Structure formats: C-alpha cells, structure tokens
Amino acid sequence: MTGTMICTYVYLRRVKPKLILSGSSIGMIQRVSFRGDAPLYGRKSLTLEVTPLEAQALTQWFPTKTPEEVMQIYGIFGGTPAYLEHVDESLSAVENAHRVILSKSGALYDEPEFLLMQEVRNPGAYMDIMGAISAGRQRISEISDYTKIPRENLPKYIASLITMRLVAKEVTQPRGIVSYTLADPFLHFWFRFVWTNRSLLEAGLERAVLMQVERELDAHLGRVFERVALAYVTRLVREGKIKLNPNYVGHWVDRDTEIDIVATAKQEEIAYAFEVKWSALKLKEAQSVLDKLEHKALGIRAKHKVYGLIAKSVEHIERLKEEGYQVHTLKEIFS
C-alpha cells in the first residue's frame, strides 16, 4: 500500500495530488487525520460523512415490497447499505432476520461486537451501555443503575459511542432533558433480540427467539416508526410544506406529559404537535388520539397550535384533514 501511494504521488505531483481517505472505521480516520497529533492533521480540504439511508429510500431498493414490508425491512436492518445487501427480496423481513441475524452462521450475527472491536480494546462496557439503552434506560442515572457502571465513568464511554455513530444524544424540550438512543434500527433490533437471547441462540434454539420476534415485532417497529415520523416531519419543515421557522423539532417531555413530535417557532408563536401510532386507526380511534393530544399540548406555549397524527393508516383521513388536522400515513411517507 505504501509503495502504491508513493508511486501515485510521484506520477501526479505536477497536478497537485489529493489523497482520498475513505473507510467505515471512524476512529481510525480520526486517529490519522483529525486529532492534533495525527499525521494528516490540518491538511484536510473536505470532509464528507456518508450517513445511513432514510426509510423512504428503501422503496427504491425494494420496489416489489409494500410500504409496510419496507418498513419491516428498515426496522430490522436499518439504513446501512452493507446490511441491506444481505436482504433476499423473495423472503419476508422476519425470514431474512432469521437467516442473517438470528442464525449463528448469519452475516450479521455478531456485527455490533465486530464494530466495537475495530474501535476499542475492551468492548464489554460499551456493549452493556448499548444494551441498557435498547432496554429503555436512556438517561445517565438509568444506564448506571442497569449496567452498574459508576455515573462518573459513563460520559467517556457514551462520548466514544456517539463519535462512532452508534449512539445519538437527544435533548428534549421544554426542560432540556438529556437522553440517549441507539443510532440505527438494526442496533435496536440486535440488542432486543440477539443480545438478550444469546444463550438460546448459542444453544441452537433460534426458533424460540424467532417466535419472540414474531410476537414483539410490532412493538419494536412502533419505536422505529416514531423516528421515521420525526424524520418525515423534519423533511416537511425543510421543504416548506409545514410553514414555520423552527427553533425545535423533536420529542416533548414535560414532567409526566410526553408528545411524540413537537415543532415550535417562538418568533411566530406557532407549534405543531403530532402523535405517532404504528397501527391502522379507525376514525373514532384517530379522533380519540387527537382529543388526548390537544389536552397534552396545553403546556406548549404558543398562540396558534396545529395538531396532527401519523399512523400506519387512518380511516376517513380526508375528513380529519378538512377539520384542520395534519394527518399522514405510512403510504405518504414512503411515496
């Protein structure tokens, strides 16, 4: 490799050669180019981070699948192209999960451990932290109680996981509560169904785990769908289809009140509030959700409030839109 680079430099030196450094190991790239003691520090002219695909992009990857089937694939494999390449389009999402993730010979059976071993020497504590987050322990105190790692030691581990793009930090409004989530649906799926069932899978009892996946898949997809819906609302704001200049778009947590998505614009004194449901809603069910949302949104400080619902499907959706509600479905998100 060194010889090749030197020869290339000699051949190109009259046309101001550029070295393109590419790789999936963020830690390695930082060690050789971003840190103060790195050999290439201060010499970069451009940094491009290739992020995972968003959910709606998978409709082009899997054109024969329905929006719900695409959502299932995204909820299990996430948006990383290298993982999606393992999906056999002739099989269901669960069948693919069985073949690729739950089987000991599957290509992604030990993927998170492999990722961490490339970046850190002792991945055990990092795995425990990610397992805690997947189990719903998303604040520092909760993660510490779950993992038994002292609170004062957690920030350095979490900072590394954020740098590796394995964990994301969220600051919810209006109280600025800090929480952490796994950065990709694949990680959520893996820690929920592989990490917690490792002894069964190692014993060759993957059928029992597969039955658990079938029972709990909708609950898992509900969490993923909230993130998909948030990305969709953000896109609507960016494209001007929701007209406001936001100071915040995200989850809303105020004491015992939680709203899935709130977009606020302080200067305009406008707020949009959405509930997200991974289910097919009848008209009465949708109206009930919206009534409860209006009550929960009383604490949002804004002169004008718009209420909305994002669900797998909604009966008589046009009627709700005529009443002034923002209502969106899975089909719209993936169109």
UniProtKB/TrEMBL annotation:
Alphabetized Pfam families for the sequence: DUF234
Superkingdom of origin: Archaea
Protein name: DUF234 domain-containing protein
Ranges in coiled-coil conformation: none
Residue ranges annotated for the DUF234 domain, each copy included: 190-288
InterPro entries per UniProt: DUF234 (IPR004256), P-loop_NTPase (IPR027417)
